[in-house]
Design goal:
Length: 838
C-alpha cells in the first residue's frame, strides 16, 4: 500500500485489515467481469497493487498445446518478466509453489481442473508464508470459479445460437409444442410448408395443423405421450396428413421426440413433406412405363458390358427376350468386326464421355443385321462415380430406306431408272475435273428419239412410256460400265464417255475417237431391233450429237450446248416433214416407216442425176445423184416425202450407203465411156464423220473409180459444227482426194476463218438467192459476194436452181463458174446424162 507517497513492500504477517481490504477489492473486481480475460486482468491489478509486488503475472493453460501462455503482466507489458518455471511447477502439481529468489505461484482451478496460474514476484517472498499462500489460493479458486462460470455461460449461449441457426437453416419443418399442446417453436421451413408466418403460428394449438378429421386422434396420441402410456411413438417415423393455411392437405413423414426444458413437458416434431416424393414416385413409375413401352431399344449395362436392363423395344429390335438378354454381354449384338468398336465405346463411358446419334450396324438374334442410331451415356452412382452405361438404340432401317429413296428420286428418272439431269451434271463435273488433272478428254452424246411423238399419238402415253423404258435398257446394255446414261427429259437422253486419251497436240488420239465412234455406233444399233409397242413391232429413229471436251468446248455448259446443237444439226430435215407426211397422220406415218424399211431390204430405190454445167462453155462437168423411192403402194416417191422419215427412223444410214454404192458404180460406168464427170451426192448431217469417208473410199475401190471423181455435199452448218471432231474427217478427205462441196451456202452462219481451213472445192449458192435474180438488188449483191469470195478462196462457185435466161446471164456476167437447174437440165436417168454428155 502507498504511505506518504512512497511504495511500501508487503511483509509476511501483515495486518488482517489490510488483507480483508484486498479480499473485498478482488471480489468486487470480479463481480461484473464479462469475460475470463477481463476477470483475470482485474484480479491481477488488485493483487499487484494490494500486495505491492514487483511483478504480477497471469498464465492461462493452452490445452491443445499443453503449455502455459502468458495472458497479462503487472506492471504493464514492456518490462522484463521472470521465466515461467515457477508457474509451471504450480500447474503441474496443482499446489502452491515458492521460489527462493522471491516469488510464489498458485493454481487458478475449478472443479479440480487447473485453468491457469497466478504468479507473484517480490524480494521478500523467499520463504513460504502460510497466510499469504492460503490467501492467494483462495484468489485462484475464486478466479477459477468465475472463469468456469463465464465459459459455461458462453458455451450455453453458443449452443443456443447454434441450435437456433440449425433450426433456421433446417430444410424440413421443425415444430415444438409445450405440455398444453401449443406451438412453441416454428422454423422457417415450417412456415413455407404450412403457408403460415412464425408469429401467427406460435401459441396456436398444434392440432390446427392437421385436418379436422384427424385432430381427435392426434390429441389422444398427445395425451398418451404426456402420460407415458405410449413411449413407442417417440422417435418412430410414421406418415400422416398435414393441413396448410389455405386449407389444402399434403402428406408428411413425422418423427416426434420429447424435449423438457427445466422439467416442463414439451415435444418437438420433425416433418418431411412427402409431396415431392410422391410426385417423384409417380414420375418414376411413369418413366418406367414410358421406357418399357418405348419403340426404341433402351438398355443399361455395367462397365464390363454386362446387360442389366432390357425393355420391350429392345426385345422387338434385337429379337432377344429380357430373360435371354439380361446377364449376357452386350457384345452379342456386335455385327462382324464391331466388337472393338463396342470396347472403345465402353472406355469412353468410363471416362465420362457420351456418344450421341452414332450410326452403327447391330446383329439380331436371327443373325440378320439392322441399322441403328445409338446414344450411349454414363450412369452415375450415388457417390458420383460412373457405374455403368445407358444405351438408346433406334431402328433406322425404314428411315434409311426412305432417305435412300428420296436421294434416289432426287437424282434418278422415275420412269426409266436412269440418272436424271442433276446426277448427270455431277458426273460430268467430276469427269471434267479428272480430265483437267490427267489431260484426258470427255465426250457427251446427246440422243433424241425422232419418232416418239408418233408413238404417243398412235398408241397412247402408256405405250410411249414402255418404249422409253425399253430404249433406256438398250442404252445401258451397249455402253461401258464407266459411262453414264441419263434421261434429259421427254425423249432425250445423254451419254457421258469419260477418261478419253488426248494427243500432245490439239487433236485427240485415234483410239479415243474410236471409242466415241464405237459407242455412237452401238447407240444407233439399238434401233435395229423393232420395239414392241402394244403388240405391234415399231421402228423408230434417233439423232445423235457428239461433243468432246476440251476439243469442241472449254467448259461443261459449252460442251452440252455443242452436243445439243450437233444433235439438232444431225436431225437435218427430220423436223421439217412434208405436208404429205403430216396429212398421213400418226398411224399412216408409222405404216410408211414399215414400208420404207422394206424398201431398204428389197432395193426399191432409184437414182436420178441432174447435170452440173460449166456456165461459160455450156459443157456438162458433173451430175448430182438424187434419190427416188419406187413404193409399191404410192409409186415413185420424191426425197422430200421420205427422207425426213428415214432420218427419224434411223434408216438414213443404210439408204445413204446404197446411194454411195450406186453412185460410185455409175461414176465408173461413165468413166469407162470416156465421160469425165464428177458425181456428187448429198450427205445427211447425222452421218458426217470419218466413218462415211471410209465407206465412200471402200465403195470407190469396189467400183474401181478414182475417189476424186466423187464429191460430197454437206450443209454449211454441218461443216462448221464440232470443228475439233471434224478434223479427222477432213484429213481423210484430203488424203484420198474426195471433193467437198458446201451446200446452200449463204443460209447458215459460216466462219470464214474456218471455211478457209476446209478442203472445199465448190460453194453451192442457195437457190433462194438465184430465184430472186436479177431484179432483187439484195440477192444480187449476196450472189456477187459469194462468187467473189469463192474465187478468193480458190474454189468454184455453183449456182443452184437456174430456171431463166436472165438468171443465167447474170451469173455468167458476174463470173459464176458452175450451175444447175431446170433451165440446164432436169433430174434424169443415167442413160440420158450419157447421151447429153456426148
Amino acid at each position: 500500500m502507498r504511505i506518504r507517497g512512497r511504495r511500501t513492500a508487503f511483509c509476511p504477517g501483515a495486518e488482517p485489515q489490510r488483507l480483508l481490504d484486498l479480499q473485498l477489492a478482488v471480489t468486487s473486481s470480479l463481480t461484473d467481469a464479462g469475460t475470463p480475460a477481463g476477470a483475470g486482468a482485474r484480479m491481477l491489478e488488485q493483487i499487484w497493487r494490494g500486495l505491492e509486488l514487483d511483478h504480477g503475472i497471469l498464465w492461462w493453460v493452452d490445452r491443445d498445446a499443453q503449455a502455459l501462455v502468458r495472458a497479462d503482466t503487472r506492471p504493464a507489458a514492456g518490462r522484463s518478466a521472470p521465466r515461467p518455471d515457477l508457474a509451471e511447477a504450480a500447474w503441474r502439481t496443482g499446489a502452491v509453489s515458492w521460489s527462493p529468489e522471491g516469488g510464489v505461484a498458485v493454481p487458478v482451478a475449478a472443479a479440480g481442473r487447473v485453468l491457469g496460474v497466478l504468479e507473484c514476484r517480490h524480494a521478500s517472498l523467499r520463504e513460504p508464508d502460510r497466510v499469504l499462500g492460503e490467501l492467494l489460493q483462495a484468489f485462484g479458486r475464486q478466479l477459477g470459479d468465475v472463469v468456469a462460470r463465464l465459459e459455461s455461460q458462453r458455451a450455453a449461449l453458443s449452443t443456443e445460437a447454434r441450435r437456433r441457426a440449425v433450426l433456421e437453416a433446417a430444410p424440413d419443418p421443425v415444430i415444438s409444442v409445450d405440455g398444453e399442446g401449443r406451438i412453441s417453436e416454428f422454423n422457417p421451413a415450417a412456415g413455407v410448408a404450412f403457408g403460415l408466418a412464425r408469429d401467427d403460428a406460435l401459441g396456436r394449438p398444434v392440432t390446427d395443423l392437421v385436418p379436422e378429421r384427424l385432430r381427435e386422434r392426434h390429441l389422444d396420441g398427445f395425451r398418451r405421450c404426456l402420460d407415458g402410456a405410449e413411449p413407442g411413438i417417440l422417435g418412430r417415423r410414421f406418415e400422416s396428413v398435414a393441413l396448410r393455411a389455405d386449407g389444402s392437405e399434403f402428406p408428411v413423414e413425422l418423427t416426434v421426440t420429447r424435449s423438457d426444458p427445466l422439467g416442463s413437458p414439451a415435444f418437438t416434431g420433425y416433418l418431411r413433406d412427402l409431396s415431392g416424393d410422391r410426385r417423384a414416385d409417380r414420375a418414376m413409375r411413369d418413366l418406367a412405363a414410358i421406357v418399357e413401352s418405348s419403340q426404341d431399344a433402351i438398355l443399361s449395362t455395367t462397365l464390363d458390358g454386362v446387360i442389366l436392363t432390357w425393355n420391350r423395344g429392345a426385345e422387338s429390335l434385337y429379337g432377344y427376350t429380357s430373360q435371354e438378354a439380361v446377364g449376357r454381354s452386350v457384345a452379342m449384338l456386335a455385327a462382324s468386326g464391331q466388337v472393338e468398336e463396342m470396347s472403345r465405346t465402353i472406355e469412353r463411358v468410363r471416362a465420362g464421355e457420351s456418344e450421341t446419334q452414332v450410326d452403327v450396324l447391330r446383329r439380331r438374334k436371327d443373325g440378320s443385321t439392322v441399322d441403328v442410331e445409338l446414344t450411349v451415356s454414363p450412369v452415375v452412382g450415388g457417390d458420383g462415380g460412373i457405374v455403368g452405361a445407358s444405351v438408346i438404340a433406334r431402328d433406322m432401317t425404314l428411315q434409311r430406306r426412305a432417305q435412300e429413296q428420296i436421294a434416289y428420286l432426287a437424282f434418278h428418272d422415275q420412269l426409266t431408272g436412269l440418272p436424271n439431269r442433276s446426277l448427270f451434271y455431277q458426273h460430268l463435273e467430276l469427269a471434267i475435273a479428272r480430265a483437267d488433272r490427267g489431260r484426258l478428254g470427255v465426250a457427251v452424246l446427246f440422243v433424241d428419239l425422232d419418232n416418239f411423238k408418233l408413238i404417243n399419238d398412235s398408241f397412247g402415253h402408256l405405250a410411249g412410256d414402255a418404249l422409253l423404258q425399253d430404249f433406256a435398257t438398250r442404252l445401258r446394255a451397249v455402253t461401258r460400265a464407266t459411262d453414264t446414261v441419263a434421261r434429259q427429259g421427254g425423249d432425250e437422253f445423254l451419254v457421258l464417255v469419260p477418261d478419253l486419251e488426248l494427243s500432245s497436240g490439239p487433236g485427240i488420239e485415234p483410239n479415243a475417237l474410236e471409242v466415241v465412234q464405237s459407242i455412237e455406233a452401238k447407240v444407233r444399233s439399238v434401233l435395229e431391233t423393232p420395239f414392241d409397242v402394244a403388240g405391234t413391232p415399231i421402228h423408230v429413229g434417233l439423232s445423235v450429237g457428239v461433243s468432246i471436251y476440251p476439243i469442241d468446248a472449254r467448259d461443261r455448259d459449252q460442251l452440252l450446248r455443242n452436243a445439243d446443237t450437233a444433235m439438232y444439226v444431225g436431225k437435218g430435215l427430220a423436223d421439217d416433214a412434208s405436208p404429205g407426211l403430216e396429212q398421213a397422220g400418226s398411224r399412216g406415218r408409222l405404216a410408211l416407216i414399215g414400208r420404207l424399211r422394206g424398201a431398204v431390204e428389197h432395193d426399191q430405190f432409184e437414182l436420178r442425176y441432174q447435170p452440173i454445167v460449166e456456165l461459160a462453155s455450156g459443157n456438162m462437168v458433173g451430175a448430182e445423184a438424187l434419190l427416188r423411192w419406187r413404193d409399191p403402194v404410192r409409186g415413185l416417191v420424191a426425197p422430200g416425202e421420205f427422207i425426213p422419215l428415214a432420218e427419224r427412223s434411223g434408216m438414213i444410214k443404210p439408204i445413204t450407203h446404197w446411194v454411195i454404192e450406186h453412185a460410185c458404180r455409175q461414176a465408173r460406168e461413165w468413166s469407162d465411156h470416156a465421160l469425165d464427170l464428177v458425181v456428187t451426192f448429198n450427205l445427211p448431217p447425222s452421218l458426217w464423220g470419218p466413218e462415211i469417208i471410209e465407206t465412200l473410199i471402200a465403195a470407190t475401190h469396189r467400183a474401181g473409180v478414182e475417189p476424186h471423181r466423187m464429191m460430197i455435199e454437206i450443209t454449211e452448218s454441218t461443216a462448221m459444227v464440232q470443228p475439233g471432231r471434224a478434223r479427222q474427217t477432213l484429213d481423210a478427205l484430203r488424203e484420198h482426194g474426195v471433193r467437198l462441196a458446201i451446200d446452200d451456202f449463204g443460209t447458215g452462219y459460216s466462219s470464214l476463218g474456218r471455211l478457209h481451213q476446209l478442203p472445199v472445192s465448190t460453194l453451192k449458192i442457195d437457190r433462194s438467192f438465184v430465184h430472186a435474180l436479177p431484179h432483187d438488188a439484195g440477192a444480187a449483191a449476196i450472189v456477187d459476194t459469194i462468187i467473189q469470195l469463192s474465187h478468193s478462196l480458190g474454189v468454184q462457185p455453183l449456182a443452184e436452181g437456174i430456171e431463166s435466161e436472165q438468171q443465167l446471164r447474170f451469173l455468167i456476167e458476174h463470173g459464176c463458174d458452175l450451175g444447175q437447174g431446170f433451165l440446164l437440165g432436169r433430174p434424169m436417168v443415167a442413160d440420158r446424162i450419157e447421151a447429153l454428155a456426148y
